[in-house]
Each structure stands twice: as structure tokens, then as C-alpha cells.
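Below is how a single chain appears once it has passed through the pipeline. First comes the sequence as given, then the structure the pipeline wrote out for it. We keep one example in the README because the format questions we get most often are answered faster by looking than by reading.
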Amino acid sequence: MNDIEILIEGIARSPIILKNLASQIPEDFLKNRRVKGKWTIHEHIVHLAEAEKMIYQRFISFKRSIRPNFSNYSPDETVDVGNLMKRDLSQEIEDFDKHRKNTVDLVKTFTAEDWSKKATHQEYIEYSAYILLRHVLMHDNLHMYRCEELWLTTDKFLAKRQSHAAD
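Resulting structure:
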């Protein structure tokens, strides 16, 4: 757990990376569903903003509880995916930035004890505040990569990647 500061710096930088990425993508790509049954760039970005609220609440639980208990978060089951396309993208990017700042401010107050707290989570074998922090950074990068992939990859190669993808 000697990389906590690096992980915090990483999640603190995600909003500016996302904002810069989104500003480079032509508008006609944002809502274009390039792969049947998969999210658009717009949906990936809105999901990041939406998930950040849940992430903040999980860190609050780690701060307040001795052993928090978490349910599985599955956007396909808990989020009205059809509603994601209706959301204002600029506002969602700003909301992600605002909510992420709150998360960063909160985790900067964590003690060594907070970081090592274990939680129960129906999806994972092991779960702690530290694992959640690392998970958040990887989650950000996964969705930002998907945005870039949907924007830049040619149809031929996108189809090949999707046929081999596990997600």
C-alpha cells in the first residue's frame, strides 16, 4: 500500500484527461453506437459521472464503518441505460469533475487504519478501501480507453476486437 498517494494523484487527474479526450472527439462520434449491444462514447462518459456518486458513498462507508458491506453495482441492472443518452454531456463531465474532487478530498483524510479496513462485497473475494481506490483508477481508464477505441478504431479492427473482448 505504498502507492496510495500515486493512486490518489491518478484519480485526481482523470477528470481533466476525460474532458480533454471528450473535447477532441467529433460530435457525430459521441452517440454513434458502433458496436451492437455495447455502449456509445456518450454512455461511457455519463456512466463515469454516475458511478462517481456511488464511489464517493463507498468511501464514506469505509470512513464511518468498521466493516462495510457492499452490494454488486451492475449498471445494466441498476441504471436506466436508455436515460444515459438523454443526459447533457458537458454537464456530466463537469459533474464528474465536481464529484471526483469530493472523493479526492475525502480519501486524503484516510488514515492507515481506514485504508486497511476490510469490507464484505458479494462480487469480490477481498475488498478494502485500498482495493477500491485502485479499482477506481482502473475503472476510469477502462472507460476512457473504450471512448478512444470507439472513436479511433476502424470498423474492421473494432469488429475484430469486439469479437475477442470479454466485456
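The radius of gyration is 17 Å.

See the next section for the split statistics.
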